[in-house]
Specification:
Blueprint lengths: L2 H15 L31 H16 L2 H25 L10 E6 L3 E3 L3 E10 L5 E9 L5 E2 L2 E5 L2 E9 L4 E9 L7 E11 L7 E13 L2 E6 L3 E3 L3 E10 L5 E9 L4 E7 L8 E7 L4 E10 L6 E11 L7 E15 L3 E7 L6 E4 L5 E9 L5 E11 L3 E8 L4 E3 L4 E4 L9 E2 L4 E10 L11 E11 L7 E13 L3 E8 L19 E11 L4 E9 L4 E8 L4 E5 L4 E9 L10 E9 L11 E3 L2 E7 L5 E6 L2 E2 L18
Parallel strand pairs: 2-10, 12-19, 21-30
Antiparallel strand pairs: 1-3, 3-8, 4-7, 4-9, 5-6, 9-10, 11-13, 13-17, 14-16, 14-18, 15-17, 18-19, 20-22, 22-28, 23-26, 23-27, 23-29, 24-28, 25-26, 29-30, 31-32, 32-37, 33-36, 33-39, 34-37, 35-36, 38-41, 39-40
């Protein structure tokens, strides 16, 4: 026995015989707990225990999943799909067409000048193993495009027949057009390929967008006008179009869009429609056209008004609309409130223009307002009248004004109107006068009366000496032309020979001659016509003179119309009057015996003053068998007899 074993025996002996030994020694014997088991006395399963064990093993295997079985089924599925795809490609794949294997390429410029002929080469490549049948190329052009070589003809769509494109082959077409648009605008041409494949009636499509930029305009378009203006003042614009191409530009239109507060007054040339459209017509290479527009504008201080102007080619469908816009410009005007507001008013009409008649008495007021934040001292108002049509002897100032006939100026100051000595901020007042145009004028056309009103004064400043301020306002008085009609009914005299009994006899025909005579004073008149109606018992003899005059008779309305057209200024004064005559047949009834029946109803003339745009008219009363304008007429010739 070695020393270690002896040591262990000694420690055991001490523990057994020691008085300090722990009674709860871990080596103390303890009673074990009883565990009961439920053991079946008989077998419940009718199957062989071995088979049951194998079935349970398979169930556990299925629950956990068998990776080898999954791999097996995946391999089988892949093999079947591969066989199907291979078979499809072998038997069918040669007849399929993929749109991705059809390429549409366009050879052409990236930029072009508006109005320049554009030539594009379109190449269609078929990289499929099947032919494309019945191929057509559809081209859609941007708005305003034109046919190359015929700018008058609008181009919206085009169809190019290509036919069959063989497998691996290509089709080519060259298309030409003329595009219009503003400088630096992007124009887009859409191309669509339509095709069929053998054995199918379906139509397939392939699209292509081709874009290019407009690098320059065929028109140089400028607008010259003020940047600032006082409210109520006239504003003028000069619009210039200059050809910037070697081609003739046809059917050009210019259109204006006016801001709120603008009032159109006139333009040269005259507007074609609604005061904002001008028919320029054809513009040859290197030439230019100018439009002058005049109007007035109202608004509050510091407000801005924007005018828009467009130029382009007229639409084929509507000649009053721009079909292809070429250029556009905007022009902004800032409205400033004047130091002193001056308004010239005639019969509460403060527009910059007034249309008056010869000899008309005109009452005018000058309404002034101090818009300054400080007082205005020593106010002075001067109104200068000019124009050969002014009747200087008719000028009559009011409110203490003095008419200085040496220069046709009316003056108001603090000496004759105390209200002008000191004007408070926002102070307001009125002075007035009257005058008349001459009753008759000979000589040049369009003889206007111009009125220029000026108000000045010294503004009191918080520091320093007073500052002189001035404000002015103008008004134009246009004199309307006087278009006059005279009518005569004659038997014994006149350009046509009459027949029949005189005095007229019941149930027998007697002819009379109707003579219309027109005179015109200051301005050319347009669209002039004269009309009258014949009673049921008066017929149309179908004789009129001069033969070149357009005189017609409508048997249904029984209206006689003389379409005169234009009557020049001074007709009947500086040149002979305009005259026409026609013959009528009067067949009186027994019921009219002893009376003087009407032969022609009221004669009505209408027209338009080309300078003032004022409608003109003149009416003469109905004419009876009493021939007061026939020098050979005798009393009694007017009465119908049996």
């Amino acid at each position: 026995m070695n020393d270690e074993e002896k040591s262990r025996l000694n420690r055991l002996e001490e523990r057994l015989y020691s008085r300090k030994h722990n009674e709860n020694s871990p080596d103390e014997r303890k009673e074990l707990s009883k565990q009961e088991f439920d053991v079946k006395n008989t077998w419940e399963s009718k199957e062989d225990p071995l088979n049951e064990l194998l079935a349970r093993q398979r169930e556990i295997s299925l629950q956990k999943g068998n990776p080898f079985k999954k791999i097996l089924w995946g391999s089988i599925s892949f093999f079947v799909i591969a066989l199907v795809v291979a078979g499809y490609m072998f038997f069918v794949g040669e007849n399929t067409v993929s749109v991705n294997k059809i390429d549409i390429s366009v050879l052409g410029p990236a930029t072009i000048s508006a109005g320049e002929e554009l030539s594009l080469e379109v190449i269609i490549k078929n990289e499929n193993n099947t032919d494309l049948e019945g191929a057509n190329l559809l081209i859609e052009y941007p708005a305003g495009s034109r046919v190359a070589g015929s700018l008058e003809e609008e181009l919206t769509r085009q169809r190019e027949v290509i036919g069959r494109i063989a497998a691996g082959g290509e089709g080519r077409r060259t298309i030409k057009s003329v595009l219009f648009g503003e400088k630096e605008s992007i124009q887009s041409i859409k191309m669509t390929l339509e095709y069929r494949i053998k054995g199918s009636n379906a139509i397939f499509f392939k699209d292509k967008q081709y874009e290019l930029a407009i690098k320059s305009s065929p028109i140089i378009f400028t607008v010259d006008g003020p940047k600032e203006i006082n409210a109520g003042q006239d504003i003028d614009f000069d619009i210039t179009l200059t050809s910037n191409t070697s081609e003739m530009l046809r059917n050009l239109l210019v259109k204006a869009e006016y801001p709120f507060g603008f009032s159109f007054l006139e333009s040269k040339p005259a507007s074609a429609d609604q005061d904002n459209l001008w028919d320029i017509g054809d513009l040859p290479p290197g030439e230019k056209r100018t439009i002058f527009i005049k109007g007035s504008i109202q608004g509050q201080n510091e407000e801005e008004r924007t005018f828009r102007f467009y130029a382009g080619i007229a639409s084929e469908k509507n000649e009053q609309e721009i079909g292809a816009q070429i250029v556009s410009l905007t022009h902004s005007v800032s409205i400033k409130r004047p130091f002193i507001d001056l308004v010239l008013s005639i019969n509460n009409d403060s527009s910059p223009e007034y249309i008056a008649e010869l000899g008309e008495k005109i009452q005018m007021n000058v309404i002034w307002t101090n818009n300054l934040p400080s007082k205005l001292l020593n106010g002075k108002i001067e109104v200068k009248l000019s124009g050969v049509a002014l009747d200087r002897s008719s000028v009559s100032p009011k409110n203490g004004g003095f008419f200085r006939s040496s220069d046709n100026t009316i003056v108001w100051d603090k000496n004759n109107n105390p209200d002008l000595a000191e004007i408070s901020p926002g102070g307001r007042g009125v002075v007035g006068f009257s005058f008349s145009p001459l009753t008759s004028i000979s000589g040049a056309q369009n003889q206007d009366i111009n009125i220029l009103s000026t108000m000045s004064g010294s503004q009191v400043l918080p520091s320093g000496p007073p500052q002189n301020v001035v404000s002015s306002s103008e008004k134009l008085i246009k004199l309307a032309s006087s278009l006059n009609l005279s009518s005569r009914l004659v038997y014994y005299v006149g350009p046509l020979e009459n027949r029949g009994p005189m005095p007229p006899v019941a149930e027998q025909e007697t002819t009379y001659t109707v003579i219309w005579n027109i005179t015109n004073t200051l301005n050319d008149a347009s669209n002039v016509s004269v009309r009258a109606t014949l009673p049921s018992y008066v017929g149309w003899a179908d004789f009129a003179t001069p033969s070149q005059e357009n005189i017609t008779f409508d048997s249904l309305s029984r209206e006689v119309v003389w379409n005169v057209g234009e009557v020049r200024a001074g007709t009947g004064f500086l040149s002979s009057s305009k005259e026409a005559a026609f013959q009528v047949v009067f067949t009186p009834s027994l019921s009219q015996v002893g009376s003087s029946p009407i032969v022609v109803s009221d004669s009505r003339m209408t027209g338009q003053d080309k300078y003032t745009s004022k409608p003109l008219s003149s009416t003469k009363p109905a004419m009876t068998t009493r021939l007061t304008t026939d020098p050979n007429f005798k009393s009694g010739d007017e009465t119908v007899v049996k």
